[in-house]
Design brief:
The protein has one helix at residues 44-52, and strands spanning 9-18, 23-25, 32-35, 61-66, 80-84, 96-102, 107-118, 121-125, 135-144. By secondary structure, it is mostly beta strands. A hairpin with a 4-residue loop joins strand 6 and strand 7 (107-118).
Length: 145
Amino acid sequence: MATIQKGQVVSFLCSSYLSNGECLESGDNEPIRMVAGSLNKGNDFSKSVSKSLIGMSINEIKQLKLPAKFAFGEKDENKIFKMPITGNSTYKIGDDIQIKVTDDEQAQVLEGTITKIRGDYAYVDTNHPLAGEILTVKIKIISFD
């Protein structure tokens, strides 16, 4: 039986799940095309999947457990900001907001979610909502060239 070699173009279906079993994306419809073993382009997620394709064959199914750093990133406490609540603001926990963050060199607008309110301050988490989550990826090979 022929197996996928590094550099071959592979078509596969891909589904992803959180550690609690929640399905993030069911890839039963649209195949993904990727070069097997390609580590030069893309994010850590695509590099991990690409590497795992090597040695697989048509109709083979594989499950990968990707640590947070290869999925949505580790939870970074430096991406949680303390923001003063002013005036008649009616913020509540779970609100999605934009905040302006300024450092010595530049200012940028970040999107985040209010995770707690203490007194006159709201804490805004600008990490990806799924940061820190382990991701299970299920791939099924359709074809390869």
